[in-house]
Amino acid sequence: MRLKDEQKFEAIIRATLELTHEKGLAGIKMSELARKAGIATGSLYTYFEDKQDILLSVDREVRSRGAAYLMQASTDDEENYEGRVKTYVGQYADFVSANREAILFIDLLQRSPFMTERSYQDTVDQYRFTLELVEEGQNAGLVREGDPEEMVHVIDSIIKMLIDHRQTHLKGAYDEEVRNRCKEYVWAVLKK
Amino acid sequence: MRLKDEQKFEAIIRATLELTHEKGLAGIKMSELARKAGIATGSLYTYFEDKQDILLSVDREVRSRGAAYLMQASTDDEENYEGRVKTYVGQYADFVSANREAILFIDLLQRSPFMTERSYQDTVDQYRFTLELVEEGQNAGLVREGDPEEMVHVIDSIIKMLIDHRQTHLKGAYDEEVRNRCKEYVWAVLKK
Amino acid sequence: MRLKDEQKFEAIIRATLELTHEKGLAGIKMSELARKAGIATGSLYTYFEDKQDILLSVDREVRSRGAAYLMQASTDDEENYEGRVKTYVGQYADFVSANREAILFIDLLQRSPFMTERSYQDTVDQYRFTLELVEEGQNAGLVREGDPEEMVHVIDSIIKMLIDHRQTHLKGAYDEEVRNRCKEYVWAVLKK
Amino acid sequence: MRLKDEQKFEAIIRATLELTHEKGLAGIKMSELARKAGIATGSLYTYFEDKQDILLSVDREVRSRGAAYLMQASTDDEENYEGRVKTYVGQYADFVSANREAILFIDLLQRSPFMTERSYQDTVDQYRFTLELVEEGQNAGLVREGDPEEMVHVIDSIIKMLIDHRQTHLKGAYDEEVRNRCKEYVWAVLKK
DNA sequence: GATGAATGAGTATTCATTCAT
DNA sequence: CATGAATGAATACTCATTCAT
C-alpha cells in the first residue's frame, strides 16, 4: 500500500495558499484544490476532515513556520540595540516578502466564517521574540514607553503594508530599498 | 442601480456591514442579508442587480462617506504643521473607530473575488487630502523624504492597527489615550 | 409568493413510500425523490432539514395516521366480545392491506442507520386501542392470560404476515378470504 | 467465490451480521466491515467479488446453516403429534434466539435492492420440514384446514415476534417461559 | 496475498436567483 | 412592489473499488 505522504500534505498547503491568493477564501473549491495539489478530490479527505479542517490546518502550519523562522533569525553578533532591531526587521521583511501568500491567507482566514474560536494566544506566541526585543529596548531606555504588544502589532502592520504596497500597487519587486524603508519606519516608531 | 427607498438602501448597507463583521465576506448569504435588513430576499433584487452589485454598491457608498468625512475634517485654524497633522490624525482615528465595520468591509472586499477591476484610483481619491498634507510637510522640510503615497498607506495602517488592536484584542473602548497614541506614532513616522 | 404547500408535503410522503417500496431505504436518492414528488431537488429542503428528517417525518406521519385509523375504527354496535374482536381485526387487516408501503417503510426504518433513538413508546401509543381490547377480554375471562402487549404484537405480526404472504408470494389480491383467515388465526391465539 | 481462508470467511460473516444488527443493511460500509472482521479493506476483494457478493454469500451461508439445524432437529421419539410439534417449536425457538442477528439479516436482505431475484424457493426449502409436519397434522385431522405454507409462515412470524419482543423491547433474556409461550401460541393457531 | 491510501463517480446539500401569489 | 417558496446549477463529501507498496 501507499503510505500517507508528507509531500501530499505539503502540496495541499501550497495549493490552498495559491488558490487563496488567486480567488480569495470563498473561491476555494475542493475539486480545484485537489487538481492544483495533483491529487484526486476524494484524497483531500484522507488528509483532512473537511474544508474547514484544511483551512485551519494550513493556518496552523503557516503560523508555526513563521514563528520558527522568526525564532531562528539571529541578531546576536550585532553590537548595539538599534543595529540588532534593524537586522531583525530586515529579516522579518525578507520573510514577509517571501511569504506573501501565507500572510494574506492568515489575514483573510481571521475574518472568515471558517474561523471559529481560534485564540488570540496563537498570534502572541508567534511574536514572542519580537516582543522580547521591544521589552529589552524599553528596559534599556532606548524605546518609547507603551504596551509592547501593541507596538509589535504596529511594527508588524508597517512592514506588511510597505511590502504589500510595493508589490501590489507599484508592481515593484521587493528590494534593498524597501527593506531599508522598513528599518527606518520601524525604528522611527520605536526610538525614544 | 437607482434607489426606490432610501431607508431600505440604508438598512441593506447596515446589514451588509454587520454580516461582514460577524461572518466575513464569504459568509454573506442573500437570505440572511435580507432578514437582517428587514425585507424579503426577493426584494434585494428590486434594489440591486445581484449579490456583487450589492457588495460593490455598499463599497462605493461607504468609501464616499469616508471621503466626505475626511474632506470636511478641518485643520485650518491650527497654527503649526505638527498641530495640524495631529488634529487631522485625531479626526481620522475618530472616524476609523466609528466605522470599523465599514473599514473591515472595504478591506475584505478589496481582496475578494467580488472585486473585479476596481481601480486603485478609488483609494487614491479617498486619501487625497492626507496626501496633500504629507506633501506639504515634505515641501516645508518638516517631513521625512519618501514616496508620499506610501507614507499615507503606512499612516493609515498604523491608525487602523492601533484601533483594531484596542477594540478586538483588548476589548477596550476607543478613548483619548488611543487617540493620542495614534498621533504620536504617526508623527514619529513622519517627522524628519 | 407561493405558500408552503400541504400538497407538496403529501407528495413527498407518497414519493418516499413508493421509492422505499421500489428500491429499499438505501435506494432513496434526494433527486429521485424530488422528481417523483414533482418538485425540484432543492425544494425538499424547504420542507425538511435533510434526508434523515424526511425519513423520520414520514415515519411519524405514517404512524400517526395508522393510529388515527385504528382509533376511529368502530366496534361499538357488536353484541359480543368475539364479534367485536373479529370486526376490529377485519378493519385492521383492511388497513394493513391498503397501507402496505407504509408498513414496509416503518419496518425498514426501524432497523436503519437513520433511526437514532426513536422510542418504543411511539409504537405503544399506536396500539393503545388494540391493547385495551385485549385487556377487556382478559378481564372478562374470554382471553388467554399473558402480557397483553406481547399479545398485541403477536396479533399484529400474524395479520401482517398473512397479508404480505398473500400479496408478495402468491401475487394474489387481498380479499374476503384472507380477511377471514386473519380473524380466525387471531381469535385462535386470543381465546382461552 | 472460493475460499482461501475459512477463518476469514467466518470473521466476515460475523462482522456482516453484527454490522447489520447495529446499523442496518444500508449502514454497511466496506471499510467498517473490514475493520470489524480484522482485515484490510482491500482484502475483502480477495475473497469476494464485490459488496453484493458478500451480502449474498452471507445470506446463503446463514440460510444453509439454519436449514441444517432444522433438518437435524429430531422429533422422532415423541409419542403424540402435539408433543412433537411443541418439541419442534421449542427447538426452533432456541435456534431463533441464538441466531437473531442472522435472522434479522435475512429479513432485511430479502427486501433490499441487493437482493435481485433470489427465488422464493430458497425459503421454501428451508421450511420443508415444518411444512411436512403441518401437512401431517392436517392429514391426521389434528390441524386446522388451510394452505400449509401460509400456516408455516404464520408460525414462523409468531415465534420470531415473541422472541424479538422479549429481547428488544423488554431487554429480557430468552428463557423457558418464552419458549413455552411459543409452543402455546403456535399450537393454538394449528389445532383444529 | 495483505494492506490501506488513492480514486472519482455518485449523492446530499447549499444558495443565488426567479417567479407565482 | 413585496414576499418567501421554488428552482437547479454548483459544490462538498462519501464510499465502493482499485492499486502501489
Structure explained in plain terms:
- Chain A has a domain at 74-190: Orthogonal Bundle (Tetracycline Repressor, domain 2), CATH 1.10.357.10.
- In chain A, 73% of the residues lie in helices and 0% in strands.
- The longest helix of chain A has 22 residues, at 51-72.
- The mean pLDDT of chain A is 89.
- Chain A has helices at 6-23, 30-37, 41-47, 51-72, 81-98, 100-110, 120-126, 128-139, 148-169, 176-190.
- Chains in contact: A-B, C-D.
- Chain C binds a DNA duplex (21 and 21 nucleotides) through residues 1-5, 8, 29-31, 39-46, 50-51.
- Chains A, B, C, D: It comes from Neolewinella agarilytica.
- Chains A, B, C, D: Residues 29-48 bind DNA.
Task: Supply database-style keywords.
homotetramer; 192 residues; mainly alpha; Tetracycline Repressor, domain 2; DNA-binding
Shape of chain A: elongated
CATH topology of the domain at 74-190 in chain A: Tetracycline Repressor, domain 2
Proper CATH architecture of the domain at 74-190 in chain A: Orthogonal Bundle
Report the radius of gyration of chain A as a whole number of Å.
19 Å
Number of helical elements of chain A: 10
Low-confidence stretches of chain A: none
Distance N to C terminus of chain A: 63 Å
Largest sheet of chain A: none
Return the average pLDDT of chain A rounded to an integer: 89
Pfam family, one (chains A, B, C, D): TetR_C_10
Protein name (chains A, B, C, D): Transcriptional regulator, TetR family
InterPro entries (chains A, B, C, D): BscR_C, Homeodomain-like_sf, HTH-type_Tx_Regulator, HTH_TetR, Tet_transcr_reg_TetR-rel_C_sf
Domain HTH tetR-type (chains A, B, C, D): 6-66
